[in-house]
Write a structure and sequence with these properties.
Blueprint: H1 2-26, H2 46-58, H3 64-81, H4 85-97, H5 104-121, E1 129-136, E2 142-148
Antiparallel strand pairs: 1-2
Helix pairs in contact: 2-3, 3-4, 3-5
């Protein structure tokens, strides 16, 4: 049983590594290693912020997979809310084009609701969410880790 979990965990980590590499490649920085600063003093943790951001939708998530999908939508909407005009529309359309056609209208509606929520309740936070990961925490409960940009002065 533990061996099976290790294999599943290894697959999850490899999948996350490939997602990050793909994102960096799309940004034109495939070989660049990020500088990681863990929880700078006096700065709110983005894992807590992201959880609060998607919290109204969390009750609909019954499985770890649906939680991860919600966090992905939340991340897309959060970042889209930080840009405006055609850049926002391009970002949303790009993400929606990667989703199955039958869910695009519902996904767009949820994304726009989340963008509005970001602008209304989290307007002062201008940090981009670069990546997230759900990892097993104490007691088996999932713990959210978030990588984000640093706050601007």
């Amino acid at each position: 049983m533990a061996s099976h979990r290790k294999k599943d965990r290894a697959k999850q980590l490899e999948k996350a590594r490939k997602r990050r590499a793909k994102r960096l490649e799309r940004r034109g920085r495939p070989d660049e290693e990020p500088i990681v600063i863990v929880s700078p003093p006096g700065v709110e943790k983005m894992s807590v912020v992201l959880e609060e951001f998607v919290e109204p939708y969390m009750e609909d998530c019954k499985t770890p997979e649906t939680v991860e999908k919600l966090l992905s939508l939340g991340t897309i909407a959060w970042n889209a809310a930080l840009v405006s005009g055609s850049e926002r529309e391009d970002l949303l359309n790009s993400m929606l084009s990667e989703m199955p056609a039958e869910i695009r209208d519902d996904a767009r509606s949820i994304l726009l609701e989340l963008v509005h929520r970001k602008e209304t309740y989290f307007a002062d936070n201008q940090r981009f969410i670069l990546d997230f990961q759900l990892v097993p925490g104490a007691g088996g409960e999932p713990r959210l880790n978030v990588i984000s940009s640093m706050p601007t002065a």
